[in-house]
Design goal:
By secondary structure, the chain is of the alpha+beta class. The protein contains five helices and four strands. The chain folds into two domains: 120 residues, N-terminal domain of TfIIb (Single Sheet), CATH 2.20.25; 38 residues. It has a four-stranded antiparallel beta sheet with strand order 1-2-3-4. β3 and β4 form a beta hairpin.
Length: 161
């Protein structure tokens, strides 16, 4: 699986569909594939890539001698050849052969075997259910707190009127 694929995948659990988080990548086997630089392709992809997600995954799995990606997309990225080449390398040359992707929201795990991510929902074991329930409860409590804070600020604004 290439990092461009990881960049677009989200949790398929129905509970995570409202605001699907980026999947955490835990690679156990990574390789680098030779690929001829395709400037037109990477220029078209820049605006479609979730750069913070890509950067996090790339930093975790890229070999030490890999090109360095900057912390943020540079100004004028479409004309910055060095950036385009590094971005192309990150999304098209790094291959996750084995590992898993984990949803930070529900803790569901998606295995990667033979470079293919398995996104099919399967029954969760007891430990996954327990962890998932705790994570979802924390998310609900945080959402309830935010909703309460926004209602308070709405009420304060009404009082000022």
């Amino acid at each position: 699986m290439k990092l461009i694929t990881h960049n677009i995948l989200t949790c398929v659990d129905p509970r995570c569909k409202k605001e699907p988080p980026s999947l955490t990548l835990a690679a156990t086997k990574v390789s680098v594939e030779d690929s001829k630089f395709d400037e037109a392709f990477i220029v078209r992809m820049i605006d479609r890539i979730d750069y913070p997600t890509l950067l996090t995954a790339y930093r975790e799995v890229a070999p030490k001698d890999s090109p360095v990606l900057p912390p943020e997309v540079p100004k004028e990225p479409h004309t910055n050849k060095e950036f385009l080449k590094a971005l192309y390398y990150a999304v098209c040359c790094i291959v996750i052969e084995e590992g898993e992707m984990i949803c930070p929201r529900c803790a569901r795990s998606y295995p990667i075997r033979g470079s293919i991510p398995n996104m099919i929902l399967r029954p969760m074991d007891e430990e996954e259910i327990k962890h998932s329930s705790k994570r979802m409860k924390v998310d609900k409590e945080e959402a309830d707190e935010e909703e309460g804070e926004s209602k308070e600020s709405d009420n304060d604004e009404k009082k000022m009127d």
